[in-house]
Amino acid sequence: MKGVLILCFHVMVLSFQAKAWQAVRNPFEFSKPPEKFHQVADCMHVTSEEGEFFFKRTAPIVATPQHGRLVDVMSMAPVMEVCGIYFVTDPDKLVEVTVKRMDINCDTGGLMSFVDGWELNGMYFPTEYDHPKSMDQRINEFCNDPKMWPFSPVRKAFRSSQNAALVQYRIPISGSFTVSVRYLHNPDPCNIMAEGVAPYYTLRNRGAFRNCSLTAVFPAVMSVVGVDVGGRKDGVNYDCDRPDAVDRLEIGGSSGLDSANMDKSSTICGKSMEPGPEQGIFCGTSTARLISSGRHANQALVSVRLAEENDITLATVLCDMRRKKK
């Protein structure tokens, strides 16, 4: 009996050691888990996932009795449509895009670009007034120059300033690309693209001379949960659209991404930690903009939810959301 107990003990010890050694890997055997692979099929692809994104366009193939399969380049019209992959993640993260492979010929009109933010119909998020970089710094365009083969001066990695970024591409005849995307922590978020519905979003300037914005690309009902803007301590004012109120929070909407000239629902300053009234923004884009002079440490907590049909009684801004004909 004693021998059986000793044998069982040794078996248990060996089993424990085997499990423990399974967790210890040879550093030379370490390998990163494979990235999730995404085949891009739609011209406008919106995603919050990480991983590798692949797109390929092939030239039409025709068959002839004499020559078999041939590429029918002469009879086809180039596809000059510009498409894009729109990335959006959590408010406190950045988007990092790495170009792993690219076959986009400059000579055929092919072009690829990284946009620090989003672009839609010539309008940008964040606007040029709310972004720390100029437009020239935010947009990077590149393609393959056959004369420089096999060397390519293309910058391989790009990083956004906020939780939204865009990869645009134009491949008229044939070509392909693969980009790897991951999301990194942002210790100081300023401009936020609302990915979904959260209890509230925080906008703060941290005492700096800058504008911060919260944008939702859908009709929304917004309300200010708490506000401390402009250094005033005598309550909150919803009518601060005057020359002396430089520091303010603007709530409003626009038909496109350009919120600099949006229709305003309210302009808020002062201090309050009591929830304010709900404001229905029936526009293609709903925005809260915190405008700061740098003289005050401003912050605002804003709640956002998707506007429903019965919220029309809360409407404070109504935009013409019909797509204009070009």
UniProtKB/TrEMBL annotation:
GO CC, one annotated term: extracellular space
MF annotations from Gene Ontology: corticotropin-releasing hormone binding
Domain Corticotropin-releasing factor binding protein N-terminal: 82-182
Gene Ontology biological-process entries: hormone-mediated signaling pathway; negative regulation of corticotropin secretion
Matching InterPro entries: CRF-bd, CRF-BP_C, CRF-BP_N
Residues making up the signal peptide according to the UniProt record: 1-20
Keywords per UniProt: Disulfide bond, Glycoprotein, Secreted, Signal
The keyword Glycoprotein appears for this protein: yes
Annotated ranges, domain Corticotropin-releasing factor binding protein C-terminal: 201-312
Pfam annotation, one family: CRF-BP_N
Name by which UniProt lists this protein: Corticotropin-releasing factor-binding protein
Protein's organism: Aedes aegypti
Gene: 5574573
